[in-house]
Design goal:
Length: 413
């Protein structure tokens, strides 16, 4: 048996952003999706679906009261649900949000974050049995763009220099956070998450080819490179700090270059689109670390087709020898578009307003496709009392990939 890292191959999670939005308001996506109020139902849903791992958040701006004071009471319903279902959380400790009284461009930021991470590790270790998993800072590369160049979220910088400074500051804090967590929980595993991207120049702008390739082959990897110790080694990165590489995969991750502002997502059928398998190969060749697809989802009626495509690409990646340990169907319940507030319909469940309470309504076709793949991989379709009693045998995944023999395919239509 070749045991996987996680108790199930399929993971899920809950949107938990707590950024200061460009209008100056603090957003709390957990409140907007009513996850705390519905934690028992949300985790029961995952248990019924045979998903034993969930990305979950501890909101830094709300838990850290300053001057060494912390308050984790908002986690009580989540912890109760986790204990009841015995689902393993991967704790996001900074999901685009940080306390308003700390400046990310000062040394105090990394120090404050490390102290918070150590406190979180003590709290989690006292409340839950292991194994323990953490994502110290979610999507450092995207966070650096959103807060450093586009001005969407704090610290509201609007140029490339701001992006580059913020990325290094976030990496410094993340490395300090990893070391702080492991002072308390030496065996804790880290999942460092960033998007898979492919950027191409517009057909009529060959002069932008070098800039597009720089984003694809340098910027896309620099945060992971720093965590791995390949770049800025003075910050203390190392392969054991990088640990598990989490690759987020969405259709809008393949883009046409724009000099100012976010790039333009490539339409289906564009000649610039690459197979997901090839994007995973780039990451594997660079780090040779265990990997997960840390977020992926289609939209609306396209969710089952998206899952089918992602699974075929994942199986092709396994046939190439890539050490893939799981796929996270994210989110478990729907989330709003940050800009418009409209529901994205990308979750396993849609959210339907019923007199102020958001009902969880599973998408049946999406669930059916998940069930089909669980059977292909010889995995459970619902959890028993101990999800770790039947851990993932990666040989089952390898055998399924060999049997299915899918080809890497750039058609995401």
């Amino acid at each position: 048996m070749r045991q996987g890292i996680f108790p199930t191959f399929f993971l899920s999670g809950f949107e938990c952003s707590t950024f200061l939005w460009k209008d100056g308001r603090r957003r709390d996506l957990v409140a907007e999706t009513q996850h705390r109020e519905h934690a028992s139902q949300d985790y029961g849903l995952l248990s019924d679906l045979g998903i034993a791992v969930a990305r979950e958040g501890i909101p830094w701006p709300m838990a850290d009261l300053g001057r060494g004071r912390y308050d984790f009471h908002m986690l009580e319903p989540v912890l109760h649900a986790i204990r009841r279902t015995r689902i393993t959380p991967i704790w996001d400790l900074c999901h685009y949000g940080y306390p308003e009284d700390v400046d990310p461009f000062t040394d105090a930021f990394a120090e404050r974050f490390a102290a918070y991470c150590e406190t979180c590790a003590r709290f989690v270790g006292s409340e839950l049995d292991g194994p323990h998993f953490f994502t110290p800072i979610n999507e450092i590369t995207f966070f650096a763009f959103a807060g450093g160049e586009w001005g969407w979220v704090a610290p509201y910088c609007k140029d490339r220099a701001g992006r580059e400074r913020l990325r290094v500051a976030l990496c410094k804090a993340s490395i300090a956070g990893v070391k702080a967590i492991r002072r308390v929980l030496p065996d804790a595993r880290m999942v460092h998450v960033d998007p898979l991207i492919q950027v191409v120049a517009p057909p009529d702008r060959p002069d932008q080819k070098a800039a597009a390739e720089h984003e694809t082959f340098v910027d896309a990897f620099l945060a992971w490179d720093i965590l791995d110790g390949k770049e800025h080694p003075e910050l203390g990165g190392a392969p054991e700090v990088l640990d598990i590489v989490g690759c987020n995969n969405y259709s809008f991750g393949q883009m046409e270059y724009r000099e100012h502002g976010p790039h333009q997502a490539l339409p289906p059928g564009s000649p610039g689109i690459l197979p997901l398998c090839d994007l995973l190969q780039r990451v594997w060749d660079r780090y040779k670390r265990p990997m997960v697809i840390a977020e992926t989802s289609g939209m609306g009626k396209g969710r089952p087709d998206w899952l089918r495509d992602v699974m075929n690409e994942a199986m092709a990646a396994v046939n190439r020898g890539i050490d893939l340990h799981g796929i996270c169907l994210f989110p478990a319940v729907d989330m709003p578009d940050w800009h418009t507030g409209e529901w994205l319909h990308n979750g396993i469940c849609d959210l339907v307003d019923g007199d102020g309470r958001l009902r969880r309504v599973p998408d049946p076709a999406y669930v059916d496709e998940l069930r089909r793949w669980q059977k292909e991989l010889n995995r459970v379709t619902e959890l028993d009392e101990d999800p770790y009693s039947d851990p993932v045998d990666l040989q089952d995944v390898i055998d399924a990939a060999r049997r299915l023999r899918p080809k890497a395919d750039a058609d995401w239509a």
